[in-house]
Amino acid sequence: MGETSTTRRVALLVATTSSFLTPFMGSALNIALPSVGQEFAAGALALGWIPTAYLLSSAMFLVPFGKLADMHGRKRIFVWGLMTYAVGALLSALAPSVETLIAFRIVQGLGGAMIFGTGVAILTSVFPPQERGRVLGINVASVYVGLSVGPFLGGLLTQQWGWRSIFWINAPLAFLVAALAAWKLQGEWRAGNKDGFDGLGSVLYGLGLVALIYGFSRLPTTTGWALTFGGAVVLTAFGLWEGRARNPVLDLRLFRHNPAFTFSNLAALINYSATSAVGFLLSLYLQSVRGVSPRDAGLILLAQPVVQALFSPLAGWASDRVEPRVVASAGMGLTVVGLALLYLLEPSTAFSFVIGILALLGFGFALFSSPNTNAIMSSVDRSHYGVASATLATMRLTGQMLSMGIVMLILATTMGEQKVTAETTALFLTSAHIAFGVFAVLCFLGIFASLARGNIRANADARL
After folding, report:
1. Is 5 exposed, middle or buried (0-12, 13-18, 19+ CB in 10 A)?
2. What are the residues whose beta carbons fall under 8 Å from the beta carbon of 400, sequence distance 6 or more?
3. Cis peptide before 96, with omega less than 30 degrees from 0?
4. What is the CATH architecture of 1-182?
5. pLDDT, tens digit, 9 for 90 and up, residues 360-370
6. What is the DSSP secondary-structure string of 280-342?
7. pLDDT tens for residues 356-400?
8. What are the residue boundaries of the structural domains of the chain, listed by start?
9. Model confidence, pTM
């Protein structure tokens, strides 16, 4: 493919480091939110906007920046994304109020969208197909290492130096990675098509997706239903427009004529929708039902991301040698088993049983994530790597928000405004059992989407 071994090593280093920074920031900041609330005298709603603003900003700009990266160069957008992310971190560290902190998190989300839409695309551009699964597995592992160490280091930094130290640590690291990429990463990996950028399509996409995601998170309120419906209408208009646009921001032919790409993204959406809120439910179960301290609850919940980080590179390596749909579907099947076992949770369930289920889920996630990423990136032409990478990130982000939306809808229906206490344990466990049942059914259906993608390796070889 023409890239030197040095370029490949640098690409792997900068991509995996950036993939560590963003989830580390998110999980570390979640631990620090109570300290932010104390300093600014901010309520729960305002604090909730600190992570939400970042997620919505990222979602809104993911696909447009993926398209710009394909047009003008993936390295260029990647470096500018890291710089924007770092500037957002510096500004957040200096924020004088919760309102300005939320605004600066939007800036960070903008940078995050530029990173998400290009990091995986660069790895796919640089490494040949026979090595792609391994390096994508390493990249996925770095994400879960960030998620694993974030709560511990975030709590330590907040306790010793305050919540602003999380941003002070992140900013120079992002600047350093940007400098290394600009200096050592040779190549731009653009598609060469600069005929025009679909501005209207980008606006429709961003507004529709944000309304849909945020609206679903607000269900079952009237506002939530209105935003969800409005977002669906705008996204429908986006689809109609893209079918006519001369240079669409998202070429719908990727979905219409590429079942591997379509079903792999659908499998990703289902997987994240069925699993992302599991940690939230188990955190409430451990602390509010079982009386476990936040520190000990965090240690128990570490079982899942640690196992995933350990086995993701191996799963990626396996997808270089076995059809990705086989490995990913096996992972989805193990996830179904883990979710079904969570239905057995009771107030006296042994902690070893909970840890074992989390380890099983982590192994299932590992078998699914890396091969599924490999399948998506191997199913498209090089000219679409940026958009493909951004589309996958959008599936992940949308799935995470949908997962929380499903849980909040179930909790609102069964518990109303009641808090999770000893008196409401039975109601909470009923809600959790319903949620785990819904998630298990979703993931079971996802197995068929994963299998329906067809063989990836033969098609990828044919495109070379």
Report:
1. exposed
2. 55, 272, 276
3. no
4. Up-down Bundle (1.20)
5. 999 999 899 88
6. HHHHHIIIIIS---HHHHHHHHTHHHHHHHHHHHHHHHHHTTS-HHHHHHHHHHHHHHHHHHH
7. 999 999 999 989 988 888 888 888 877 777 778 778 888 887 887
8. 1-182, 200-246, 250-464
9. 0.78
